[in-house]
Amino acid sequence: MDRQDQHGRSRTRPAPARSRLPFVAAAAAAAAFVLTAGLATPLNPAPQKAAAEAAAEDDGKKTLTVAVAQSVDSLSPFIAQRLLSTSIHRLTYEYLTNYDPKDNHAVPAFATKWQPSADKLTWTYTIRSNSRWSDGKKATAQDAAWTFNKIMSKEGTATANSNFVTNFRKVTAPSPTQLVIELKKPQSTMAALDVPIVPKHVWEKVDDISKFNNDKDFPVVGNGPFVLTDFKVDQYVKLRANKNFWRGAPKFDELVFKTYKDQDAAVAALKKGEVSFVAGQPALTPAQANGLKGEPDVKVNNGPGRRFFALATNPGARTRDGKKFGDGHPALLDKRVRQALFLSVDRKAIVDKVFQGNAVEGAGYIPPRFSEYSWQPSAGQELGYDPQRAAKLLDEAGYEKKGGKRVGKDGKPLNLRILCHATDPNDKAVGKYLKEWWGDLGIGLKVNCLDDVSVPWYAGEYDLAFDGWSVNPDPDFVLGIHTCAALPEKAKESAATDNFICDKKYDELYEKQLAEYDPAKRAGLVKQMESWLYDSGYMNVIAYPNAVEAYRTDQIKSIATMPSAAGNIYGQDGYWSWWSAVPASGKTSSDGGSSTGVIIGIAVAAVVLAGGGALFALRRRSTADDRE
Amino acid sequence: MTGAESNPAAILAAEAEAARTDRGAPGGPAGQAGPRGRRDSGPRARDTTAYLQYAAGKLGGALVSMFAVLVTSFFLFRLIPGDPVKQMTGGRRVSSEQLEAMRQEFGLDQPVWQQFTAYCGNVLTGDFGTSYQFHAPVMDKITEALPATLWLTGTAYVLYTLIGIWLGTRTAWRNGRLGDRFHTGLALTLYSVPSFWLGLLLIITFSVGMGPLPGLFPTGGMESGDESGFAYVVDVAHHMVLPVLTLVAVGYAQTLLVMRSSLLDEMGSDYLTTARAKGLRDDLVRRRHAVPNALLPTVTLMFVNLGTVVAGAILVETVFSWPGLGGLFYQALSVPDLPLVQGLFFVFATAVILMNTVADVIYPLLDPRVGR
């Protein structure tokens, strides 16, 4: 850069510009313009009026505002994948089934009844006749058949939901109230098809579905409890209540998802009353939750979450045809070592110290909120906190303690690495505890925190890793990621597998549960799989983190959690929370504060400006004396 | 020569030339007879061609830089570890067919050189591709967020530049006094405050309200969403107060310090003594003689800052949930959403290059010795 030089020269022989006046005038004009734009509000009487109008509007309309951190990826049900977008689809479209808010079992939604054939390969759904699209047309089985066929056609429509249809042979609608799905092989998850059904008469006019984001024509035609009325990227998504919803109209008139990219700012907005609800991402931090506990009219909901937080061990990464890759520690191939590691993890301490009580101690693979499938180890099976037993197991496995370090038969000390998500403070904190506990046991640990763990993970280049999944009411997916079929085809390629687990017994159980149509028997099989996973020491569930979220009780009188006894509100399987929310009498969330606030704001700004102006004038006068 | 007459550059240059000689001649206006006499067409024509050559050279350089940016942006972001497809679907139920379909859709299944040639071809036709995560054309995403960013950072830019120049001038002129120490200290303190922290403090005090102070401003976002017309403008301005305040508070120190130090350099100069000796008031000496000469480094800084206006302010945009380009860039990087990252990187780099070029091109107008 030679500019530096130019400055240097400019200093030695300066040249005053003659025509300064236009510049000054332009600058003054710009400043004046900017000042009006920036400070118009406190000085201008207009906001007062605007606020008054808004307040008048609020009186008639009950609005529920939810602070969310995520951006909408797409509003098209064929493309959308993020939690926020799919939650909006839950609210604006009907799915064939829904999940009971009490215990997560499948309940009627767009379909009133579903029945498999004797050979288990054909499912017949009876479609309800009292559901109407928001444009007045009747919603029928044809719409459902068209939606499924569109996903199966793979015209770029497979992005979001194709995992549901891979096993479908044919989908037809012989009558407006009957939907028939023929399968290639039996599939027990047919009451858990989380696919939004779209109106055929609207969507068949779309030119290129793979590029259509469904965000141009509002209101968007749907038949859920809410109708999508407006969307501004990274600002808000607005929904209005569907008064004709067959299950009954929602109590709030309007539902707004407002973007707050920063969680502390969202909490501030809740304190102020600008939003009615704050969902954590994935949970409010203990500090935020504690800070809100003292607030009047704010309720912190600390319910069981749907995630598990686990310690995964590398079982030796390999491809589907058995080619080994990666550099997982060979000691971990011994089940006794894996179990010893977990035996020396004090889960209670982690729940108390790291999660500060906002979690439940881990055990089985599926969180207890899914009561149908949740499993607990028997007393004899349980791997509780027992460092002595851990030491004994390590001795048995041939890792003697010499000079404070566990040494293998090859004479090398046992040192392990653990992959942690740099973005997750819990991972780091738990890593510190593990280092201490395993250090006592004689095992060295290196905590390797990365922004993106997926690279070493898929390369199999780790010994242990912090792992976690969000579990659905139907456990098929979280079980499927541990089957041999999920392994990558080529080394280091990303695949559906979670942790390279591949076991014949587990796979057999998986196939059986997928073909088992009797819910009780299927649950039994799922529990056997969980039991196997627990014993294997491959997936050690440390805790089930709670969903920590908060809402204003002066805006929301009541709202349903899921499971209803104690559960979460944001990100439910179903529309229960927002559909059931009852507005509190009086205030609803409003933006920008009350009109009194604005008036006081104007007054304060005026005083400050006047004071500043006076000071400036005084100074000028005094310096003018100096100057002459 | 009519062309040269109407060329503002030439006129300005000539005027500056005249002014310089003016100062050199102690006789004041009387001395102007000489230089005015030199105002024949010869040197001016030479100046104009020289200037045009200079400007063309700068523009050519800018074009080369932009092409280099285009090429590097493609390869640079492919160095980010991570599989976009896996990152996007992380933690959700997907089948391997789905992953495959997505890879195909994004063209990630093709060899890199093929992706590169396709990318270059498309960019030359103005097509930056389709964002992986938003499934919308990159250009649409950028133009959608650009106005918000320009409003926020542009307003802040104008304000902190004006405040910086004004305070910088004052503090330098009265350096060493209490006012100087106060303003320099305050500016430096604010400069070293993390912007997101200051933003949060402002939210807690002025949005939520504290003690007797009620919440005056919205906590975040750009608009309430139910206004139109003039009410909409007021609404956006209302939302803009705190983020702009944050940006100005954190940003004005730069301009202040540069302005102050370059003015301090000028203060001992002989021509100021001369000006005073002519009997000019102190204020006039400062305004007419010292400040214009000290302005050049500040102008450089102004243009460098102007170039970054487009890039937005990630932290402040995040704290105030402002729907601008900074936030978009962060989202794009975390996937990595390659087309969006490339597009944004190109736009940001282009803005900086363009502003630097504009600065280069107008330097000779401010100081005729540059570019000869």
TrEMBL record, chain A:
It is found in: Cell envelope. Keywords: Membrane, Signal, Transmembrane, Transmembrane helix, Transport. Residues 107-479 form the Solute-binding protein family domain. One of its GO terms (molecular function) is peptide transmembrane transporter activity. InterPro entries: Peptide/Ni-bd, SBP_5, SBP_5_dom. The keyword Nucleus does not apply. The chain crosses the membrane at residues 21-40, 597-618. The keyword Iron does not apply. Its main location: other. SUPFAM superfamilies: Periplasmic binding protein-like II. One of its GO terms (cellular component) is ATP-binding cassette (ABC) transporter complex. PANTHER family: PERIPLASMIC BINDING COMPONENT OF ABC TRANSPORTER, PERIPLASMIC OLIGOPEPTIDE-BINDING PROTEIN-RELATED. Belongs to the bacterial solute-binding protein 5 family. This is ABC transporter substrate-binding protein. It comes from Streptomyces typhae. The lineage of its organism: Bacteria, Bacillati, Actinomycetota, Actinomycetes, Kitasatosporales.
UniProtKB/TrEMBL annotation, chain B:
The keyword Cell membrane applies. The chain crosses the membrane at residues 59-80, 148-167, 188-210, 230-253, 294-320, 340-366. Pfam families: BPD_transp_1 (PF00528), BPD_transp_1_N (PF19300). Residues 146-363 form the ABC transmembrane type-1 domain. Its main location: membrane. Residues 1-16 have a biased composition (Low complexity). InterPro entries: BPD_transp_1_N, MetI-like, MetI-like_sf. SUPFAM superfamilies: MetI-like. It is a multi-pass membrane protein. This is ABC transporter permease subunit. It comes from Streptomyces typhae.
